[in-house]
## 1
Amino acid sequence: MQNIRSEASQPGAGEALPGVPKLERQRLHDTVVEHLRNLIVEAVLQPGTKLNERELCETLGISRTPLREALKVLAAEGLIEISPNRGASVSKMSETEIWETFELMSGLEAMAGELACERITPVELAEIKALHYAMLACKAQGDLSGYYSRNQTIHNKINEAARNSVLTQTYLGLNRRLQALRFKSNYKPEKWDSAAHDHDEMVKALESRDGKKLAAVLRQHLLDKRDAVMNMPGTAD
C-alpha cells in the first residue's frame, strides 16, 4: 500500500495537502462524504492509497469523528476498505472485477436508455441538452473535472427518465465503484473526443426517441471506456 504521499514530500505537523481546500464547517455534514468521494474519483487519492486520518483531518479541517463516519459510508459503497489492523485504504479493483463490472454496467445503461426513450418528458430532455452543451463547453476549456461532473449528471438523468427504481438503485450502487475509472478513461485526448462524440449521438437518439439506437450507443460507450481503462498502466492488480 502506498502512503497518501511519498516520504520525501510528507507535510509537517499542522500542514495540509496543497491544492485541497478545507471544508466549511457549516456544510460539513452535507459535504464530507461527497468531498472525499470526489478526491477518490479524481485520483487525488489513488487506488491502493493508505488513508492517514491525522493528515486528512488537517487537510480538510475536520475532526476524526465526521471523518470516520464518512469513511464508513465510503466503505459501504465499495470505494474504500477498512481493516481493523491496517486502517482504511482506497479500494483497488482487479482486472477481472473491472472487466465484469463495466460489462454489467453497459447492459444497465443500455436498458436505461431504451426505457428513457419511451418515458422521458420534454422538460427532462431539455435539461439533458443543456447539460450536454455545458459539458462540451468544459471540454473546450480543458476542464476535465467540470466535464465529468456534467457527464455523470447526464447519465444519471437518462437513468432517472427510465422510471425504474430497481434499475436506478442497482445502477447507482454499481456506478460508484466505476466513477474513478470512468474519469480516468478521458485522460487521453482521443478518448475524450470519442466520449464527447458518443454524447452527441445520445442526445440525437433521445430527441428522436430511438431506444434501440440509444441502447446501442450507451452499451458501446461503456465497453469503450472499459477497453481504455484496461489499456492504461497501473489500472488494476
## 2
Amino acid sequence: MHGVARHSLAPIRPTVPDVRGEKGLQLNEHTLSMRLERVAAHVPAGARLADIGSDHGYLPVALMRRGAIAAAVAGEVAMTPFHAAERTVRENDLDQRITVRLANGLAAIEPGDGITAISICGMGGETIRDILDSGKAHLNGQERLILQPNGGEQPLRQWLMENDYRILCEELLRENRFDYEIIVAERAGPVEYTAEELYFGPLQMQARSAVFLAKWQRILREKQKTLSNFARARQAVPEEKMQEIARQARWITELLA
C-alpha cells in the first residue's frame, strides 16, 4: 500500500442531506464539509473505493469527478439513501464506474470489486467497529481503512489493534462546535497500544496539536463536573463507574500537564 495520501484532496459528501456549512453553503457533491474533505485526503490516488453508509453517494461521486479514484462501490443499508445515491450517480453519468448496492455494511463489497480503500464516516465508533467485525469475511487485509467516527474512538482503536491494524495517521478537527476524528489504518501484523494510547490516539498524543489539547481540556472539565455531581448524588453510584471516570480524569490531567 502507498503511504498516507496528503495531496489528493477531493470534495466529499456530508453525513446528512441538505447540510449547510458555517457560511450557509449547501453541502453536496460540489461543496462539501471540511471534515469530509480531510477524509478524502487519505484516499490513495487511483484507489478502488468502497464507501460504506454512503448516504447520497457524494464521496465516491465527488472523487470520481476529480479523477482521484478508478472505481467505487457505494453501499447503503437503508432504502431512501440508497435511492438518493443511485440518483446522484445517475445525474453525474457515472453509472459505469460507480456501483450502488443495497447491503448491510461490508456485504456491499464483492470479490470482483478489487477494493483497495474503505471509507466509513459519520457513525459512532462502536457502530464502525461492529461493521468491520461482522464484515471480516469481506476484507482481504490489503485495504486502507479511512474511518471518521462520531465519538467512540477508543473501542474502534481497540478493534484495530486486536485485528493487526496499525494506525498510520490521525487527524482531529473542530467544525460547527463539534470535534471530529479521522483514523487511517492498514493491516501490518501485530501491534500493541497502551490503554492511554487507545483512549487518546497514539499519534494524537505525540502531535499534541492545539485542537487536540483544547478538546481534552473541555472533556476534563466535563469529567470533573461529573465526579462532583456523583459526590453530591443521593443515590449510590457504582464504584466501578466512579473509578473509571476518575482514572480518565487522571489520564487527561497528566496529558495536559
## 3
Amino acid sequence: MTLKIAFLASEAPVAQAARVDLAARYGDSPPEEADVIVALGGDGFMLRTLHATADLSVPVYGMNRGTIGFLMNEYDETDLKVRLAEAEEEIINPLSMTAMDRQGEMHKALAINEVSLLRAGPQAAKLKISVDGRLRLAELVCDGALLSTPAGSTAYNYSAHGPILPIGADVLALTAIAAFRPRRWRGALLPKTAKVRFDVLEAEKRPVMADADSISIMDIDWVEIRSEPRVRHRILFDPGHGLEERLISEQFT
C-alpha cells in the first residue's frame, strides 16, 4: 500500500521551500485523505497543525524548519517513508479551558501545552485557586499562573520554574509566575483528572487575560481548566528521540 503523505508548512520561506521539495519527491495528499501529516516549521506551527487536524485522527510527524523544535524531528529529505514507518507514536490529551469574561461572555478553547493567566495591567494579579470545588489558595498575588500538561511542561511552565513532567505521568503542573504572595509558593502537582478554577480578585483594578496555546481572552472573571481525554493527539518521533526521551534529556542540560 502506498503511504499517502500530506505536507503542511509554516509561512517561513525555508519551510515553504522544504514543502515544495518534499511534495515533488514523495507526492502530496490532502490532509483528510492522508495516512500521515508531515508538519514543517517550529513548535508553534506544530501546535497549530495538531489543533487544525484533531478531528482527522491522523498522526503528525514534525520536521524542524523553525526556530524552536522540541516537538519536531530533525529535517532530512532522504528516506522519509522509512522514517515514518519506523517512527514511535506518542498520545497526548489537551486541556479544556472555559473562561468567563467580565462582560458575561463564555469562551472555550483547547490547549496542548498550557493554559496561562497573565496580568493585563500595571498591577499584580490577585487569583483565588480551587481544585475540584475545594478552595486551595485564597489569594495568590502574582504576575500570573499556569496549568501545564506533561507535553507542555518544558515550554512556558519550565521558564516559570515549574517541574518537567514525564510524558506518561497522569499529573498536571500548576505553576505560579513571579509570585509575590505567598512569596515562596512555587505551585503544585495535581492529578490529571483534577478540575482547576481560577477566580480573578479585584478584576476591575487588576485585569487578567487567559491564554490557551495563543488563543487569548481578555478581561476575564474566572477560568476553569481540566484535561480532555476525548481528544487524542497522535505525534510521531524518530526512534530513540521521542518525547519521553526529550523530557528526560532536558533535565540534564
